Amino acid sequence: MSTYRFDRLLAPRAVAFVGAGSREGSVGRSVLSNLMRAGYPGRILPVHPTEGEIEGFPAAPRLSALPTVPDLVVIAVPPSHVPDVVDEAGRIGAAAAIILTAGLGTGPEDPGPRARRAARAHGLRLLGPNSAGLCVPGRKLDASLFAHAPSAGDLALISQSGTVAAAIAEWASRRGVGFSAVMALGSAMDVDASDCLDHFAADIRTRAILLCLDRVEDARRFMSAARAAARAKPVVVLRAGRRRPDAPAASDFAVTHTGALARPDAVYAAAFRRAGLLAVQDLDEMFAAIETLGRQRPFPGKRLSILTNGLGIGLLAADRLADRDGILARNPQGNPVNLGMDAGGPAFAQALEPLLTDEDSDAVLAIHVPTIRSDARAVATAIAETVTQARKGQSRKKPVFAVSLGEAETVRETFAGAGIPQFSTDTEAIEGFLHLVRYREAQDDLMRTPDSLPRDFSPDTERARRIVSDALRQGASWLDPIAVGELLEAYCIPAVPLILAPDIDAAAAAAWPLIAGGQAVALKVVSPDIVHKSDIGGVHLDLTSEADVREAARSILARARRERPDARVTGFAVQPMVRRGRRRELIAGLAEDPVFGPVVVFGRGGTAVEVIDDRALGLPPLDLILARDLIARTRVARRLDAYRDVPAADLAAIALTLVKIAQLSADLPQVRELDINPLLADETGVLALDARVRIGRVPQSRYGERDRRGGGHPGFAIRPYPVEWVRMLNLKDRTVWVRPVRPEDEELFRVFFENLDPESLRLRFFGPVRAFSHAFLARLTQLDYARAIAFVAVEIGSDGRERMLGAVRLHADANNDSGEYAIGVGQDARGTGLAFALMRLMIDWARSEGIGRVEGTVLSENRPMLAVCRRLGFTQKRDPDDPGVMKVRLDLSEPREAQGRP
């Protein structure tokens, strides 16, 4: 339901309390007391079956007897009573309810699911159960169990845990950090983290979002909301329970190395990184982030100058910065700048002034250690006054961070008044500085344009699907080695050829041509029940005669019968021996996480891969930038560079292999695990030496009916590229291809816009456009296909290059109620019917997504576009605020026949 009725949840005109009796210390009474203490200006409406008055307010016996309909109902009654209260709240027209009660259960007839069904029937939003409430300080709304009411500010706090929310609110109240809202979600039966991210991403009163959670229920909704929010403002996330032993994990059920490496904490970290969230590990890091975000906006750059009255403490800060991959600014007088132990306020002010204007640094950290000759309050005042004076009239205000060891309340207040984040230790300050640096880097990463994939990468998906479906029809859960090789070949992943031999004699016969040609061979056991062949001695290398092969085969069978008597041995795989030489042993593959679905795994390979545990995970789909980032996050990445006389490995080939694996997952949901170990890499490329593929029926979509209408893997947490929407259109004088936009289309769009005449640009953008920046074009080409679509029409030249003719875009709101469109068509494609065809395709997509209506804004003078809208059935209405603009709208609940024909 997303942000539906959030306006009345967070800004209620009247609040009703069910369960706030006269008993002191009861849950409901505590929340009522907090609301009164906050000075809530709306109506307070207690409900109690026997008491006529509570805290001076007249009480009604039931919700339906209230004199006015409350927007918000606070529920603190026994679990068995909750469904009836929720149903009554919905029937009288309340918008939302907070369920403080815990222990509602999860079974179909337990109070929890019954309450949810009752709320859904009336469109009532539920916060909880087991919620600690919510606070909106700017509206004097404190319907929470917190000890102290948070002060007003511009940070939004969303927490599944009430105690974590209370801890953060308590810390912030002592530091003078305020919130736009604090929401304790509890069990999140209805309102969840995704809904809150959607709301606060668009909230102009919120500058940054703090998110505390231990689980994600709907990964696709969460990733879509998180990616949208992170593009709008900083989002810091703290996950509790990263090491919970009872958490379900792919590694609990995995039998391949890649599956065992995909532990829940690593998958969550990969998801947060992909969404652009700033992940912190504990409350200390969260407090550092809050102190920073509460007083300092994100800034460009990452070079830090350190000013201190002690060289030792300054060097400790510099060491911490280097340990965390930060950059120490170059400074002619040295960095850290040491003023000496006796330095007081004037010395700090004098040294700080040039650092604030120094173009070789991006931020300043001032560290003061109080001594008998250096007063902390005087130094804090000098720093605050110097920063305040320097920032007057400046458009770009250089960030300043402060550390005052042995801090006093007056010192904190002085720094807070000047908008300077202040920390207790140098470590906290460095973390605070790096939070903003990492946020900026994450934003840059989100906006990077990937390279185009090689044109010769065209996987044979039909062949791959036949391989998997044939194996499933035979009841197999693992592909046999021949099928694995064919599957890798279908996706252009080089692999060592092999011959499948059913018995000892066949193995010797298969090995003979290779041995006769001067090659040694490798012999491997083939069994659907033995995944790790080396565990039972199932791999023999460097065999140079038929006798060696026969002896190795007999040894493998004997050990398999002894150690795995239940295993079915179906034969042997014979391969030419591949010498490792200077090749690096890597691992690459797929695992399946119970929350986020398929994940791509990359790291250092070999038999000890799980012991070494050098791996990185990424959520598919991948592009080449994401694949390179995945590689860079491993320790083995350093061994891929050149060293001594060993040339650098072909990084492009490794990255492309990861993209191919991600594409395989998108095309073949039946592939549940894939393990290439080792994947050998050197300067010539990559080679799969051994691989295993586990298959199964297509997993049921966890994302409901809307997902089933789309294509791609039903378990992907990130909606994959919608290849099923590629079309060929026959226009009046030409044939064009129309396809969804890809991130690498940025250059295509830049050339198109640069070739448009000024009048066309004005009609498209409602004003003159002089330049097309990377950030501008990235927003047009880097899409979340769960919320937006853009179709580009192209002609294919004789050289195989695409030339853009036009494009249409639709972006849906968070509730999927409506979508706003924009369209642009080049001069040479006008009058061909392209605009009409693009609009029809966009409308078809909106209808398939269940979007209720399509809306747009058109200049009144743009008669051709208005004519297209009229033919398609759009209503047209002049904008009352701007007579030069027409608002067009198409209700998609109307029959398709009423919406125009080409």
Strands, total number:
38
Helix content: 25-40%
* Approximate shape: globular
Overall average residue pLDDT: 89
The secondary structure category is alpha/beta
Count of discrete alpha- or pi-helical segments spanning 4 or more residues: 29
**Low confidence ranges:** 705-710, 896-902
Distance between the termini: 35 Å
Strand order of the largest sheet: 31-32-33-34-35-36-38-37
Report the sheet with the most strands, covering strand number, pairing sense and barrel closure: 8 strands, mixed
Radius of gyration: 32 Å
Q: Strand-residue fraction?
A: 15-25%
Description of the molecule:
The chain is α/β, with parallel strands linked by helices and 902 residues long. The strands form seven sheets. It has an eight-stranded mixed β-sheet, sandwiched between helices. The protein has a seven-stranded mixed β-sheet with strand order 9-8-11-10-12-13-14, sandwiched between helices. The longest helix has 22 residues. The C terminus is likely disordered.
Explain the layout of strands and helices.
Blueprint: H1 6-10, E1 14-18, H2 27-37, E2 43-47, E3 53-54, E4 57-58, E5 72-75, H3 82-92, E6 96-99, H4 111-122, E7 125-127, E8 133-136, E9 141-144, E10 152-159, H5 162-175, E11 179-184, H6 193-201, E12 208-213, H7 219-232, E13 235-239, H8 250-253, H9 257-261, H10 264-275, E14 278-280, H11 283-293, E15 303-308, H12 311-323, E16 327-328, E17 337-338, H13 345-357, E18 363-368, H14 376-391, E19 400-404, H15 409-417, E20 422-423, H16 426-447, H17 461-473, H18 481-490, E21 499-501, H19 504-516, E22 521-526, E23 539-543, H20 546-563, E24 571-576, E25 584-593, E26 597-604, H21 609-612, E27 615-618, H22 624-632, H23 651-667, E28 671-682, E29 685-688, E30 691-695, H24 704-709, E31 727-730, E32 735-740, H25 746-754, H26 758-765, H27 774-781, E33 788-796, E34 802-812, E35 818-825, H28 834-848, E36 853-859, H29 863-872, E37 875-879, E38 882-891
Parallel strand pairs: 1-2, 1-5, 5-6, 6-7, 10-11, 10-12, 12-13, 13-14, 15-16, 15-17, 15-18, 18-19, 19-20, 35-36
Antiparallel strand pairs: 3-4, 8-9, 8-11, 21-24, 22-23, 22-24, 25-26, 25-28, 26-27, 28-29, 28-30, 31-32, 32-33, 33-34, 34-35, 36-38, 37-38
